[in-house]
Amino acid sequence: MLRRTFLRSGGAAADAAFAGSPWHGTAPAGSGGGPTRQAPRVRAGDSPYGPLGAPDANGISLPAGFTSRIVARSGEKVGGLTWHAAPDGGACFPDGDGWIYVSNCEVPLLGGASAIRFGPGGEVREAYRILSGTDLNRAGGATPWHTWLSCEEIPRGQVFECDPYGGRAAMPRLAMGRFRHEAAACDPERRVIYMTEDEPDGCFYRFVPIVWGDLTEGRLEVLCDPVGTGPGAKAAPGPVSWEPVPSPAAIGTPARHQVPRAVHFAGGEGCHYAGGICYFTSGGDNRVWAYDAAAGMLEIVYDGDAPLRGVDDITGTRGGDLFVAETGGLMEIGIISREGVVAPFLRVTGQDRSQITGTAFSPDGSRLYFSSRRGPSGAREGTGGITYEVTGPFRD
């Protein structure tokens, strides 16, 4: 069943005003800003890219005009680096005449993140580590100043700010809170960073840095019910507000339990910001949410049993389409189109015990990267992980 929906999307314009950033100085495409559009009610239907074809040589079913290739396999060399197990959250960054794809590693104690540098034709130039020695690095998010926020999905987990270009050491950003971090998305208009929490009663947070572009100091806030329905209130569509988290370090009481009016979500997963809206998923109830930052409203984009199952990672195109990856289910990446249609975009066959992670578009929007975290083996440790690239006529 599909309930009432709300969907806006935006262009690729970005706000690059982040005075004081110690990192890089221009904003990547798709990092926020731009006009918003109201879309029709979401409904299951035909994909704007057409039906899926038969599985290709890589076991990927795609619409006509699209092709796939394997970029990296866990335990095998790519660009001089042994690719990590359990590839998870990812993002792309511009790099001269090429680009960089960053991937987290969801392995206990050894986690971290790696990067692959591509040339203008998609050839692999090199690969290297950008973070090591962390724990269960799950999703994360890119910043407008070209850094990667790698998030630990453990109790009292941290956010590490990493340099995808490999020139600076990764740094923990303690002011962003200690909790089971999942994903992060930057809002350059309000100069905040939204974050999800993968707990059965997880919260939705935002970090307000003192200086935009410098994450060493700031205020952690949690999304709240302004009416105040009481502790443990489940999230529901309607007006929302923000309140500071008294103790972001969560030494005694977990961050999600510190504010009585905080609203709770059934396992926060992916997070994506575009055009004034922050979209995020909750895997426990298979929902895609939309927080309208200007209106201070929370809405449900998708709430159903099909065609999206086990919603997890989420990203978007410059043209306003959302791409949502499944954990389990049919191992599909689905599209929620700017016209309001929900349909499969691709399917991975023969890997039913895996999950799709790390969805990210190249800076020019022509290539989609993602990983099968466990690969065909389905091994819990993710030693069979595979990272893919899909190329084709994505809509602007």
Automatic annotation (TrEMBL):
SUPFAM superfamilies: YWTD domain (SSF63825). Residues 18-54, 373-396 are annotated as: Disordered. Residues 18-29 have a biased composition (Low complexity). PROSITE patterns: TAT. PANTHER family: DUF839 DOMAIN-CONTAINING PROTEIN (PTHR35399:SF2), SLR8030 PROTEIN (PTHR35399). This is Translocation protein TolB. It comes from Thermocatellispora tengchongensis. The lineage of its organism: Bacteria, Bacillati, Actinomycetota, Actinomycetes, Streptosporangiales.
